[in-house]
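Anyone else keep sequences and structure tokens together like this?

Example one:
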Amino acid sequence: MRGGCSNTSRVCCATAPERTGSGDIKCCASRVRFSSARWPNSHHCRRCIVSLKLLKRHNSNCPHRKKGFFYWRCECPFHVEGREKNGEYVRRRSLNGLLQFNEPISDAREAEEMLERYENGRPVVEAAAEEKTIEEAITLFLVDLANEVSEPTMKKYVLLLEELLQFAKPEGYCFLKQFSKDSILMFRTEWDKERKVESIPAFRTVLKGQDEGRKAGERTPLSSHTKQKEWERLRNFFKFAHEFGWIERNPTVGFKRFKHEGEPKEPFTDDEMQEILRAADRRIARAIGPQAKANALRLRALVLLLRFSGLRIGDAVRMETSFLVNGTLRVHTQKTGSDVFIELPPEVVKALDSIPLKSNKHWFWSGTSGRDGEYKKSQKSETKHWQMRILGLLREAGIELVAGSTAHRFRHTFAHAHLVKGGSMEDLSRLLGHASIKVTEKYYAKWSVARQKRASEALRRTWIDDPILAWERAANPVPTEAERVDEAESHSDQASSSSTQSVLENRKAVN
């Protein structure tokens, strides 16, 4: 009988199937014909299917609707059809309805694993509990990371992973393993667009209350340098998840990194530094009131300190008076956590001693005490305040504000002066407090005169006893230095005599 089977047992189709000449139509032992296009790799009729099979009933607006039930590369929910172990036949029932899940299941791997657990009698709820959701994975990663990186770096991780979770929700991703290379590629392309971002309070708890969170708003496209850094952080997150067994494969592996040429690190010239100091003197002269004059004096002293210490502006602003002993400055840098010892010129020490203190132990910062969060927040706002004052001073001095025209440019000026006067790269790396000399070489190697001289001397030593050069000297002798001087003098005498002769001839012609 077409569409049915006289044997209702599970093994009614155990006998070998028969094929038609075309191979497209098969039949089971009950001689019930069906299309092999509907059930690929199957030799059973619809009523005799041994196990449940996954299929997709595409939504009305799905662009892949005409590709059939077995096209799974879309976001349409999975359905099942087939016979269960108890003999009950399931016809095109939603998978989440069969498993009693609230949300539809659209991921192929997740659907296969859950259906396998269901058929083997294993609880499907445990399978869902064993998988890490995206939010759980991010929270555990941030908690582990909080003890390894600084607060500014931690905030950057929080911002990135907030965007990752916000990207996953419209795509229907709940578990971390649902991320594929295609989804990572789509997430990377979002960095080139303007997009809305929202703060997630659950992730902000790892910042220890330092940042209240970013308000919802538009984010501009990222620069090439920021893309490079964001990609490194995203790779670190998925590498962490892969090492802990939350995902079988790292979806970020195989992608090319963003290329970043780097902005040129240009120092201030001596003329520009003089103009900056003249502008600072003009501010002091026109200051009205003791408070305005004190701030103008502090600004001039800060410029000198940044130029001759090479400190980052955050370290310079929070510097205490006890850090300076007998003209030597000892600072524990915030970014790398290294201690630097810098000897300051007497003129800079005098400028620091002549300005009024802003607190009992700080030159440029009030040193607000209280809870740790308030302390750091006050320091950050004070640093931004001095940064804006320096930008205003540069505009007043007529300095062109190109990319990188911030207080950090004084640090480049310090490095440039050290290297062009013969200082070593190793000493400069220690003075700047870099974690590795590779960082110093990356930005300042082009200014190292000492290295260039050593390279030139090594190159000249390769000329000694070179057979090709010896042969060339024998064939075409090179004049010595004294011979070149004599030849130059003779040429100058000839030129002067010829010019004198031409003058006499011109006079004769006039007479």
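And example two:
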Amino acid sequence: MNRRVLSVFLASPGDMEAEREAVHEVVDRFNKSLGRQLDLQIDLLGWEDTLPGFERPQSLINKDVDACDLFIGMLWRRWGSNTKQYSSGFEEEFTVARTRHIETAQPEIWLYFKDIGGESLSDPGEQLKKVLQFISLQTEEKELTYRRFSETIEFKDKLYDTLIKYALRLSRQVEARSAASTEGVTRPSRKEVSTVLDNVKSGEPEGAEELFGMLSTVRAYIKEKGEVSLDFWQRARLNLLAVSLLSPQHIWELLGPHQQNLFYRKRKEWNLLPQEQALLIRSLVADDRGTQPGWFWLAKRDEKGISGLLIYLTLTDGNDAVRRNAFRWLRVSGQAPSSGFIKSSISEQDHVVLAEVLQLAELCEDQDITKDIEVLLDAKDANIRDAALEAYLTISFRADQAKAISLMTEKSTVVPKVMWKALKEGSLEAAETSLMSMLTEGSAEIREFACRALRKRGELSKGTAEHLLKDPDSRVRGIAVLALMEGGRSFNLEEISSLFEKFQKENLGLGLDRLRKPVMEDDIAPFMFEKWEYSQLKEYINYYDIQSAIAYRLLAQKHFDKFGVVVNRDLQDACQEFKRESASRLAGRFGLPAEKIITAYEKTDEFLASTFIGSAMEGMASHAVKDALPYARKYLGRFKYETADEQALLIFEQSGEESDVELLLRFAEKTNRDIMSDAVRIAITISGNREKLIRSVVFREDDAEVIASVVGIPYVGSSPTPDQLAIAALDHSGLLENKDARMEIAKEALKSNSESVRLSAVRVLHDVLDRAELENFLDEYIEREAYFYNVVSLMDALIYAPGAYGHHAAVKLSGESEIDDRVLALKGFPQ
């Protein structure tokens, strides 16, 4: 076996001499013992190993950083000296390593921070402040994991243990390429995976002959020292060959986005060797940023073939990013993995990769795999424990709902997705006794789940619901109130308010609990008002009570025949008469204290006015009142609160005229994204020249004169949200009947510097072009003088990715979230 070399760069300021010496000792010990057994040699480099030269000293050091496989950074009290480009040598070295890691998934980066004494923390100097800022940044961003230590001996032990585990994992992954099949593990056959693609057959000479010619030219140059007569693309091909030959031994060597996109331009011309294709595909799989195309080289494989290749990569590839994303892609496919495959993969040492394994395991149909997952329920890493428990409960639930529910109540604080789905679909078979025990023993989310299930099945008794009114969680109390209302009990507003007055103190937990929107009286009041008669509602409404807006809305919607006169009056005078009536009623009820109530509400007057006016216009819109348009024009964008704007837009959609386009676009420039999109859509709908209007919005920065001529808006520079406006116009370009015009607008929009605008343009092209047309456009696009990698990567997946993999790319492009039923339930109320 050829001995492999692991290049390690050690970065630290000058106060870590003892730790640097410890690293040298650890590496020396490894190389003399385990390294020989694994045929792995660690080559340790640091600033002291850099040879002198005629360059900036730090630039010479950076070359070693650029070549390393593993970067170890250590900090204590000192930050280091300025390098003229960065505040310290450590910062520059870390930045070089991190930048390359982002682009190529290498080097591996380990950070170690030595504990700082309390005295130093109380009065840190400039050096220590920078160290603390760096540690704080790593903690907040959670991009890289790090370890802390107190003493050098502790650091030495931690580093040696970590290094051994890392080396064993690398050895296991590399040697797995030639290992025999493990009993019970489903592996693709050697015949299926030894050649990454089938389009280059064994013995086919074309690609090899082309390379032989180039290599002969290089040989002549070396021998005769003449001029190399290779063009740019020949040199690029040799670069691909060199990296592909290095990659099997140097497992961290992958292609960056610049290289991958360069080679992609020749995808239909070059006849690649299997090694070259393997490198391109591994780089595609490892890509986390959506900038590296490569599905073209997998085009001859069907969905099953892709899955077989991904399984092979998870079992054999030594690169963490490749394995992690291979597991992720397998989950996207939705295919149930074999228990043997999951059993083999659970031995994964990298925690990020293992979390992906456990998420994939949720699809496994073999109950026996739960025995292997069970050992991870007590893992030290909280993320692994949570992922293992989710997988364990999900798999168990399919076979024995009662057992899974019991275990969830005992060990978990969240409800697995599969259980929320069962509740939604009506397939939950939990016994009433199990659900009742969840109400007393479970977490807030589990109690909510049980409460919803009991209410849906009609098993939430009056006594239980009354008891749940004292539950500490507002969502549980809210469901109990609804159940009691359904049973005939009535509540007054004072009772409702007292039940939910402390909602803001709830929901301070971590994880998914953050999604659990607390219930307020506003969520419950509509159900109460629904049962009131017209006279009760009319008597109740009061300008100085925000709950009254709910009653006002019901009056405007359900009793417009009687209440329409009041609606017209309030829209005409912006609720001034309504305010006077309410003030008079308060004075009659409370006397002088009424003035204090009115004064307190004056601070929220604009919010109150916009709320009531919005309710009034909602009534007009729901009844399609002919005279409503002047009110929509009057109030659109008038208030800083947008409660009236949505209703005004409904009226514009019903009866707007072309003269309203200018007003709608002015409004779209200053409102939030959701309402802005509706405003743009309605403006396009009522415009007499839709194509011209869409162009004016999409290309507004480059075509100011068109804007002025079409909608009369003076050009005053960039709009506050030019990208969002362009995206809205592109998304609603389907209102154009002319497919070619829509396509041309999208093609031009691909030149935008905004990634979001470009993705919207790709959405349009995917909608109007068939596969062959989209492929022809991609061929044309990559020959442009300037183009964007994410556009190429996305179109590559849309055109060439088969089955579920292609569907996933389309869903991602559409902007739809693949949100699970649990998240939907936790965000929404009452359902």
